[in-house]
Each structure stands twice: as structure tokens, then as C-alpha cells.
Amino acid sequence: MISCREITNLLADYLEGSLDPQTAEALEAHLSGCRTCDNFMATYKTTTGLLRELGQEEVPEELKDRVLRFFRERPRRPEEPS
Amino acid sequence: MVANTGQGGFLESELLEQVKAGDEKAFEAIVERYSARIYRIGRTITGNPQDAEEVVQDVFMTVFQKIGSFEGRSAFSTWLYRIAVNAAMMKVRGKQEKQERTEEDLERWLPVFDARAQHAHPVGAWSANPEEAVLQRERREVLRNELATLPTEYRTVVALRDLQGLSSEEAAEILGISPAAVKSRLHRARLALRGKLAAHLEEKS
């Protein structure tokens, strides 16, 4: 029987779908009989989903313009065309 | 003239040749394409928006100055993200050395198991509720703040893997560590963040 500790160690691979079918099946069997691990997996998955959402967050609207202004106003090196 | 596939996408290699030749329009196209991604990496590693914006400026100045030395042995994005990670790390080193979080800070938030390798503490479900969008936004905000409290090497991996959506192999190439180390740091970071978020939600209920 696979332990709660082992389940925890396998979560990332399980959610990525990279576990071999036999291990994935053993993990699912454990989850169906262990409320604690089932809750743990659901909350781990939610955390990962929220992190991905952070990667979609808006950036300041003016960011690109400010970067380009900074670039255009940079001190030129002698070899650069003005 | 900026290289374009005609379908709205860029032929990146042509674009890079134009940047190498000093074409500022091509450079602007690169800024357009990557500034938001660099900003998000910078924000996650430095922990604040002002530093993130400086990281974006530093990165593109470096790109403009060093593009001639980019030989295409790795993908351009790999080269660019490596510059971004280094620029963000420099900011962290310069400002936060004394406050830098340690591995022990992170370990406090990892799950605890008893002698039989079972969870030592109960784990509750996180409720959904009718105001789901508000709830999600609030949780994201908590997570954003908690992310800033992780040790830098963990924030960096989360920035590349979860926020940027890169593979472990790509993140490993950027950071110069093994894919196994990326996976291990990512998992520990997510576990610690889950623990921190759980503590926050329990405090509220």
C-alpha cells in the first residue's frame, strides 16, 4: 500500500500525466480511500492553477512605452549611429 | 522593415538578424513580444513592480548591446530569459541580502507525516463559493505575497515553470541546473505555498 508521504511526492508528476499507468492507478486507489490526501491533492492543484493565473496577469499598460523611451534616450556609444 | 510571416507572427531568426544590423524597429518588435514575459519573471524574483520594470529595461539594454554575441546555439528565448534571471538576481542580491529567506523558512510550510508516513495533521478542502471570481482574485493576491517570501532559487523556478509555462528541461538550461533539481525545487515551492495559503484560509474561516 502506497503511503500518504509517497502520494505527496508523486503529486507533481501525477498532475503532469507523467506517472506510469500502474503507479497512477495505485495513487488513484489511495486517493479514493483517503480524504486527507484527496483534499491535499485538490488544494495542491488549486495552488498550481493560481500560480499559472499569476503568469497571465496584466502588466502595466505603459511598460513597453517606458522601456522604448528609456532605450531611445540612452547615452549613445561613439560607434552607434545617432 | 520588420520580418513578418504575413500571418501576424514573427520570423524570429530574421528579426534577430535585423536587430544585429542595428535596426531599431526590429528591436522594438522584440520588446513588444517579450517585455510582459520579462516583467513577470522580474516581478516574481524581485518581489516588487518597480524592480521588475528596471529588470525589463536592464534586460533590453543588455540584449541590444550583446545581440552580436548571440550565436543561436540555444533558443533566443533561453538566452533572453537567462539574462532576465541574472538581472533580477542582481537586484535581489543588491537589496535584500539581509532579509533573504532560507531553506528552513520554507520547510516550516511543508506537510508533516507521522511514523506511519500518514499526514500528521488534518487537511481541509478549500471551499468554492458563489463569489468565485472575487475569491480567486483574493487567493491570487495572497499567493503573490507569499511567493515573495520564498528563497530566491525557489521563486526563480516557479517564475519559469508555473508562471512562464516552460518545461523543466528549458528551465534547467536557463538556470544551469539539472531538470531533476528544477522539479524538486518546484514541488517544494508549491508545497510550501499550498501550506501558506491553507494557513491564510483557515485563519479567515
Descriptive terms for the model:
heterodimer, A: 82 residues, mainly alpha, Arc Repressor Mutant, subunit A, elongated, B: 205 residues, Rna Polymerase Sigma Factor, Chain: A, 2 domains, 9 helices
Low-confidence stretches of chain A: none
Largest interface: A-B, 37 and 48 residues
What would CATH call the class of chain A?
A: Mainly Alpha
Secondary-structure-derived class of chain A: mainly alpha
**Major sheet of chain A, described briefly?**
none
Give helix % range of chain A.
55-70%
CATH class of the largest domain in chain B: Mainly Alpha
At the fold tier of CATH, the topology name of chain A is Arc Repressor Mutant, subunit A
What is the level-2 CATH architecture name of chain A?
A: Orthogonal Bundle
Count of DSSP helices of chain B?
A: 9
Provide the number of structural domains of chain A. Answer: 1
What is the total domain count of chain B? 2
Q: In the CATH scheme, what's the topology name of the largest domain in chain B?
A: Arc Repressor Mutant, subunit A
Shape of chain B: elongated
